[in-house]
Amino acid sequence: MTVPAKPAPAKPAWTALHWRAALAVFLLFAFLHPASAQQASDRDAVLAVNSEFYRAFRESDMAAMEAVWGTQEPIAVEHPSSWREEGRARVLASWAIILRAPPPIRCVVEEVTFEDGRAAVLCTEKLGSGEVRMINVFHRENGSWRMIYHGPALDRLT
Q1: Which domain CATH number covers 100?
Q2: What's this model's pTM, rounded to 2 decimal places?
């Protein structure tokens, strides 16, 4: 008599604490390691995707916003108003709401780092007369860089 195998336990969802801890470790190591030749050649590609993200944001281009975000990795967004979403469907739904009336936004002072096959862009978002430091994290997906996280930067670690 064979005993049926137990189903594999469900993978726990990442909490805000998990995402922040992962970002803290990423930032700590990313800023301590110099860029390799491959990373130097990827810098322009990452900045192009980052620019496309902000163009889609400014111009309410939902199709472009969808193209920027990854499809194979867990993704998350943490909007500056503390509104957080995880998973592609929820992240894109949050952007659909914001793109109905996007604020006049610009990304300036971009810093790119690489670690473990991922890239991070630290930038200052200019919103009218105010500004906020943000981080955009990317990974390679089918040969192209795709965003997997957008949220507040942890400047105290950089």
Answers
A1: 3.10.450.50
A2: 0.73
